């Protein structure tokens, strides 16, 4: 049996899904990160999670894995030396310390570009260049998924065009634009390939350590939110996916791309179509700040979901928002707080649903394909009360997802990459 492994790195943990040639799940595993995560312990934690999850797959299944792909959180980045050792602590997806460089960036990048955001990969790269203790041409700038894949295949400096979008890579022309080339950046930018592209076989010592076949392929991955989109089964223009994870991420499959930095909107390439969307800093992390999982389940069952809450919040854990409002200084709004916890939770769920609806309305106003239905991924997809509330605001069908785990979408990329390689080999031998 041929099996394919997808590895998903989110904000609160990592997950693996193993599928067969028919897309049936053969194995799953989860790894929760310790909280709070100390920055300097992140990389050790990532490696431990990756290797632990693979080793937990039954040995017989591991021997049947033909390809692996990894996804990571968008714009989580790090700087490495010439042998792939991290030089500084990584900067997470929501790290806004680059806000101090926004005025400089506006003189570099075209107006209204995706990178004009305090948390973009390029903003973080410029911060590294100004603040890192080691920034020569022997250093490499990598995304989280790039580094994790490097641990498996040993090829330094390769990324996919989903992760590279916020680095400034031109996904329409499939090259770095001239204005990036003109910067003469004093570190190696990653070579960019399409998601699912076969990169290399596993390093022999890694294959032995993890109990995998040495000819197992490692393929280019993607971001966690795009992996979640792929897992749902959404395929047609007008279909959208809302990821209700630690943050709120909207993706609408559109025939035309939309890029508008004023609102934190960007478009990922997906074959001949475009994933248009944005990511808000609101979401599950805010809910878990106020409630335990058990409380969320219990209180959600007490909410009258068909009645709108009068509370109008903008739930954030700290100042700063990306989409549908792009304002690094936007203040959280979670007051007034009612005496009854159930009313407070109702207000939070209602307010996040309003932000979601506002995001989709904005995408369509700017020219994206009109929305026809919304799939849901992430932990929030399990909350039926929230689904009802969201349905009131979205006014389109909320569709059942084929699969909710981002790791499933990444496993699909691994299968696609394996099939690409061996289809090509078959053609070459004819």
TrEMBL record:
CDD domains to which the protein is assigned, alphabetical: ASKHA_NBD_FGGY_SePSK_AtXK1-like (cd07783)
Any one of the GO BP annotations: xylulose metabolic process
Keywords for the protein's UniProt record, in alphabetical order: ATP-binding, Kinase, Nucleotide-binding, Transferase
Reactions catalysed, as given in the entry: D-ribulose + ATP = D-ribulose 5-phosphate + ADP + H(+)
Family annotation (InterPro entries): ATPase_NBD, Carb_kinase_FGGY, FGGY_C, FGGY_N
Gene Ontology MF terms in the entry: ATP binding; D-ribulokinase activity; D-xylulokinase activity
Residue span(s) of domain Carbohydrate kinase FGGY C-terminal: 241-414
Keyword Transport: no
Keyword Transferase: yes
Domain Carbohydrate kinase FGGY N-terminal: 3-230
Cofactor(s) annotated in UniProt: a divalent metal cation
GO CC terms, sorted: cytosol
First-tier enzyme category under EC: transferase
EC number: 2.7.1.47
PANTHER family xrefs: D-RIBULOSE KINASE (PTHR10196:SF80), SUGAR KINASE (PTHR10196)
Family membership noted in the UniProt record: Belongs to the FGGY kinase family.
Protein's UniProt name: D-ribulose kinase
């Amino acid at each position: 049996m041929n099996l394919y492994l997808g590895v998903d790195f989110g904000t609160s943990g990592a997950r693996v899904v193993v599928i067969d040639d028919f897309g049936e799940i053969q194995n799953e595993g989860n790894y929760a990160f310790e909280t709070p995560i100390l920055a300097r312990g992140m990389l050790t934690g990532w490696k431990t999670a990756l290797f632990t999850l693979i080793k937990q797959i039954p040995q017989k299944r591991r021997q049947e894995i033909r390809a692996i792909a990894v996804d990571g959180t968008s714009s989580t980045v790090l700087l490495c030396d010439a042998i792939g050792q991290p030089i500084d602590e990584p900067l997470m997806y929501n790290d806004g310390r680059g806000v101090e460089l926004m005025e400089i960036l506006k003189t570099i990048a075209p107006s209204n570009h995706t990178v004009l955001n305090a948390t973009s990969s390029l903003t973080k790269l410029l911060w590294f260049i100004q603040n890192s203790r080691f920034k020569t041409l022997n250093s490499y700038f990598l995304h989280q998924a790039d580094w994790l894949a490097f641990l498996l295949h040993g090829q330094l400096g390769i990324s996919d065009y989903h992760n590279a979008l916020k680095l400034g890579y031109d996904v329409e022309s499939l090259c770095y634009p001239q204005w990036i080339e003109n910067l003469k950046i004093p570190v190696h930018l990653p070579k960019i390939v399409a998601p699912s592209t076969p990169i290399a076989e596993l390093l022999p010592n890694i294959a032995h350590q993890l109990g995998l076949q040495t000819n197992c392929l490692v393929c280019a991955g993607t971001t966690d939110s795009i992996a979640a989109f792929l897992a749902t089964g959404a395929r047609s223009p007008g279909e959208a996916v809302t990821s209700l994870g630690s943050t709120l991420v909207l993706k609408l499959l559109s025939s035309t791309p939309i890029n508008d930095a004023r609102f934190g909107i960007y478009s990922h390439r997906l074959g001949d179509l475009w994933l248009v969307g944005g990511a808000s800093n609101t979401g599950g992390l805010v809910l878990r700040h106020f409630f335990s999982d058990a409380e969320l389940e219990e209180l959600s069952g007490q909410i009258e979901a068909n009645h709108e809450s009068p509370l109008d919040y903008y739930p954030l854990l700290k100042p700063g928002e990306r989409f549908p409002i792009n304002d690094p200084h936007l203040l959280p709004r979670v007051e007034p707080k009612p005496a009854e916890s159930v009313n407070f939770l109702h207000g939070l769920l209602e307010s996040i649903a309003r932000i979601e609806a506002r995001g989709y309305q904005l995408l369509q106003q700017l020219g994206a394909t009109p929305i026809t239905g919304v799939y849901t991924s992430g932990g929030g997809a399990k909350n039926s009360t929230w689904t009802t509330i969201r349905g009131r605001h979205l006014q389109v069908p909320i569709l059942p997802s084929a699969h909710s785990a981002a790791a499933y979408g990444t496993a699909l990329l691994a299968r696609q990459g394996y099939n690409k390689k061996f289809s090509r080999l078959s053609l070459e031998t004819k």
